[in-house]
């Protein structure tokens, strides 16, 4: 069992005694440096322990007994928020990945050397949202170049304060967890530039909020556009029986993304689990999300026709992006946008598609620049180097995993 010893001093007989039991004269000698003193330390001894269910602790006692317990709960618009946080990661040139090792009680981790963020698979939606904001703050402010500019308490203070601020803005209550976390990292710690730390928190929180709101706004605009188009279509049908141009768009779009032909393969169920996307599956899902925004009538119409669950689709896309690198995902998105250009889109649809394409180009540019200037290698050289890099990076990750949310 852990026991913390207080400060001790060595008396004239050479024995270590608790400083609190020293006489007035001995305390003066300690102060003058005539008697040796040592700080308190944590020691362990054998003892008996009890599981909480074996005690008389109540539900109300648990937050005090387990101050670092997981927060449980669901989040409204969880998958839309995840898309917004994915956008934050892209802006910070970071990637959300699966953890490289067992995280234990840690809720999330930022691999500083790789610019990667991972979450504990045991997290609830509420814990995931809060912890991802926390780790993304590390990725934004505490990069490999700047991490030594802050102490550990300063970094944890900024990460948790930003996560708490952004979550609160979207009516996500993490106060029970965040306030205890902040208290732990701020008590008995003096920050040299408290005002500067808070200014960075404010700037970062504002940027995160704007990015997430942009993502949510795209969703709202898509729904509003769908209503307007339905009303217009209804008016046109009253005046004429001529087939609408949108019917051709719907037919061509359906032929691009319909899963019927692909799913008819006898090997489909064996090769692909229902909750996972392959490369073509991701492209189809991405096209459907884009079409829901640029041409809501065709996009959402097909979703209704096929009985698609959009929340499930977003979850599958998020999982795919976590398990594949930026370059691979962006190439699939670029291919999807090029294929959508072949459809007879409306003028509004073409404008919106161009906006998405421009946004994707901005996200891709930083990752392309990282790969410029490298010489060509043979496939054998690349294979050998890949094996060496995998071993070195695995070892490096263990050393560089410094921003862990306990």
TrEMBL record:
Polar residues biased stretches: 378-393
A Pfam family hit: Peptidase_M78
Start and end residues of each stretch annotated as Disordered: 1-33, 357-406
Biased composition (Basic and acidic residues): 10-33, 358-377, 394-406
Residue ranges of every copy of the IrrE N-terminal-like domain listed in the record: 108-190
Xref: InterPro entries: IrrE_HExxH
Lineage: superkingdom: Bacteria
Protein name (database record): ImmA/IrrE family metallo-endopeptidase
Organism: Halobacillus shinanisalinarum
